[in-house]
Design goal:
The complex is a heterodimer of chains A (411) and B (126). Chain A is α/β, with parallel strands linked by helices and 411 residues long. Helices cover 21% and strands 27% of the residues of chain A. Chain A folds into 2 domains: 9-272, Alpha-Beta Complex (Spore Coat Polysaccharide Biosynthesis Protein SpsA, Chain A), CATH 3.90.550.10; 300-399, Hexapeptide repeat proteins (UDP N-Acetylglucosamine Acyltransferase, domain 1, 3 Solenoid), CATH 2.160.10.10. The longest helix of chain A has 12 residues, at 208-219. The longest helix of chain B has 22 residues, at 104-125. Chain B starts with a strand and ends with a helix. The chains are: A alpha/beta (411), B alpha/beta (126). Chain A binds chain B through residues 96-100, 113-114, 116-117, 212-213, 216, 219-222, and chain B through 65, 68-69, 72-73, 88-90, 92-93.
Chain lengths: 411, 126
Amino acid sequence: MAGGHGDATLVILLAGGQGERLYPLTKRRAKPAVPFGGTYRIIDFTLANCINSGLRRVYVLTQHKSLSLDRHLRARWSVLSPGLGEFIQTVPPQLSLVSRWYEGNADAVFQNLDILEDERPREVLVVSGDHVYRLDYGRLIQFHRERDAALTVACTEVPVAEATRMGVVEVDARARVTAFHEKPACPTPMPGRPSHALANMGVYLFDTEPLVRALIADAKSESKHDFGFDIIPRIAAERPVFAFDVIERCPPRERYWQDVGTLDSYFDATMDLLQEEPAFELFDADWPAHRHAPAYPPAIMRNAGEHEAGAVNSILAPGCIVSGARIVRSVLSSRVRVERGARVEDSILLPGVQVGAGCELRRVIVDENAVLPPGTRIGYDAEVDRRRFLVTARGIAVVPDGTVLTPAGGR
Amino acid sequence: MTRILVVDDEANQRLLYREAFERAGFDVVEAGDARQAVDQVRLELPDLVVLDINMPGVDGLETLTRIHDQRPALPVVLNSAYGGYREQFVSWLADAYVTKSSNVGELIGAVRDVLERRAAQRRGTE
């Protein structure tokens, strides 16, 4: 990493949200444990950023359905050396400071004040487990220290129309934050780029002392106990807060950022991987996004009689078998089977899904181990789909985990 | 009348504080340990808590978190013979930290400051 001061910075990764907007993908797992991109889970990208940036002291604050995350982290992220003071440690609610569940992401950190007490880091990097991006946090740390900031907020530039659903930062010429608006009706454009606004990526680097003071003051007041709504404005009112614009300050490969907190944004981020020139490249030997992958055999594509197998602009994870089927702009996660004559288009199949002969799928997310009998059609008639499945506002159908459809097309 | 809850395991100290605070025009209720303190917060609805730290069993800092759990906005003034606890983050949950001395006036002054600051905050948000 750029600064080389990884030991001084502690990471707190927020992974306790319910993930209701990703339901039913979060029916049985925590949001950060939702599979993504064929062989990953959403949390992998943030963890990869930490480890590849040299930040090797990571607390993952869990809450809902945390078993899924525990299992994933143990299986895939047992890469550090506790003997050298490195760890990725999940922390379920301790109920030690107060006797209630987390009431907001700032409350989650407040309730774990004893971690900060024990570790006494110079800075605390607060990140969340539901964003897909690549960022060398070392750049952020260096920027923060050079400016003697109390808080540095990583930001990206988004079109003004999209910024209404985000936190928007106003800055002066030196990138110092002068105002912060959470989900503004009329976002203030950036100085020098009127079509875009500077949006909060949910990556915060705090000096420890102002963080603790703000968390405590917030805990004693009526608020949403949210970093965006409450903590940033509270600190910005009293101390120097800076915006780190990744578009301005990072190389091209670090300019992609996508929140995958809703089914539609999850779908979009997946499709971003499948472009001919993808905005976000999974394969990068310098920046591995996981270290231990399960040992499945390589993906196999084979013809079946007159049915030729083919796949374009798609991801096929190890363990897949495609027999005489066509795969277009889709992600097939591990152990997926697609049988002869089937066509899968603009779709995401999570691990273990079985697609029978002659099935036609378009704009569908099929969750783990679902079984689609021969001839199933999804994505061609919104009315029919809505009777059987959750269909998003943008028309993406979601088949829940473990669903076994009957050949007649019922459930 | 403003009601102060004095939490201290030493009865003599509580008596000293009771007399001083009553002379200064406050209503005083007492607790000798953490459990009584949490009960008194619920039953007597004090306006502010003066809290000793070094107590046998559950100490003052943990009592502070239990009070916070019950009434997050209730002002607390920590009162200890030892100043070192103010380094601990959890002590920042209190509104003030006064080192114990023979001069009770300093403690009463801190209590008044905290109450005035809170009143000013309330006026600011109204």
